[in-house]
Amino acid sequence: MLPTETVHTIQPIQPPSTPLTRSLAFTLSPELEAHEPPEARGLRRDQVRLLVSHYRDDHVAHARFDDLPRFLEPGDLLVANDSATLPAALTARRGDGSIIALHLSTRLPGGLWVVEPRMVAVGPLEVLGLPGGGTATLLAPYADSARLWVARLDLPAPLLEYLARWGRPISYPYVPERWSIEMYQTVYADEPGSAEMPSAGRAFTPDLLARLAQAGIGFTTLTLHTGVASLESHERPYEEPFTVPAATAEGVQAARLAGRRVIAVGTTVVRALESAADAYGRVIPTRGWTDLVITPERGVRVVDGLLTGFHEPEASHLDMLAAIAGRAHLEVAYRAAVEGRYLWHEFGDLHLILP
User: Of 313, 309, 235, 229, which Cα lies nearest the Cα of 28?
Assistant: First the structure.
């Protein structure tokens, strides 16, 4: 059994040859945005498209997500985030009677929350009225953010019960209709806590998971509760709570010692695994908070590949992708995605990055 440790400081390793550059040379047009779940487009979850790109030789293949087993090898280990999505968007009323959207982001110690009053200037000690007689008292800006606040919630019912009645999934203007919370859950979601869906795993189905197991491809989970995205400002990620259980840490270590590939399902998994790794890349069972930002300068220690959605040109997630695959390869892959008319965002298509 591996010892349990808390999140620790990780020293940089030898950086990749590509420089730290976030932007990619493309424009995301509205036609490349997924405006509804694939089910509303007449598809099963696992019938979204899959771009497979190999960063060692820049080979690119076009497929469908239910083709995933043929691009993996027996012994590969997929690691997914089993955090379940909260209906974390609430309607709030200000003291002057105006209505705003309030997004819950991250539960803090002491019963406080990080929240985002959407697209509105607010002030300290402002009290927002919530449905059913609840309130949110804004205490202070969170960290150095201009959009996030620390708040105290006073609710008339336990949180999950309250949100089930009054909350709705967080969505953005590119998804014009409201969809049920079930559309924002992965099939293996377990512990509620994410403000937004860990969307890289949305396309998995029970049938596909069974096919992967039959092909000798491993599947294990960890938990990282995601906060709200910085859709407009593209800020760096903030602290998020995560847990890498002993069974997952041991499975990752066994795969790495045997020379088998570890493939993260989503950028949240990369962040959690790298936060739980020691200076030699050994993954330790860990429960804590991580503020780790992964860049090409830092590099990665644990993962060999990544399954992820497509990210906007200025998104900070591109730093992490470049740390795994190199910026030059991302240029190749994203050019293929734009030319191939792949769809972006949480209901869109997926990108499998492999050696």
Answer: 313
pLDDT at 314: 76
- Residue 99 bridge partners (DSSP): 93
pLDDT digits (tens, 9 = 90+) for 145-161: 889 999 999 999 999 99
Q: In whole angstroms, how large is the CA radius of gyration of the chain?
A: 20
**Listed residue (352, 261, 343) closest to 308, CA to CA:** 352
Predicted model pTM: 0.91
Domain span holding position 194 = 30-85+178-354
**Nearest alpha carbon to residue 242 among 259, 230, 260, 224:** 224
Strand duo 350-354 + 305-308: pairing: antiparallel
Per-residue burial over 175-195, b = 16 or more CB atoms within 10 Å of its CB, e = otherwise: beeebebebbbbebbeebbbb
Which residue, 237, 196, 239, 234, is CA-closest to 315?
234
Note whether 81 and 96 are same-domain residues: no
| Mean pLDDT, all residues of the chain | 91
What does the alpha-carbon distance between residue 254 and residue 248 come to, in Å, rounded to a whole number?
Answer: 10
Measured distance CA(351)–CA(342) in Å, rounded: 10
Q: How many residues does the chain have?
A: 355
Contact in structure between 65 and 350 (CB atoms under 8 Å):
yes
- Same domain for 184 and 49: yes
State whether residue 307 is helix, strand or coil.
strand
φ, ψ (nearest 5 deg) of residue 305: -150, 175
Predicted confidence band of residue 4 (pLDDT cuts 50, 70, 90): very low
Establish if 184 belongs to a structural domain: yes
| Residues 190 and 332 placed together within one structural domain of the fold | yes
Q: What is the CATH number of the domain that holds 105?
A: 2.40.10
Query: Does any domain span residue 56?
Result: yes
Taking the C-alpha atoms of residue 99 and residue 82, their distance in angstroms, rounded to an integer, is 33
Contact predicate 354/334, CB 8 Å: no
The per-residue pLDDT for 19 is: 34
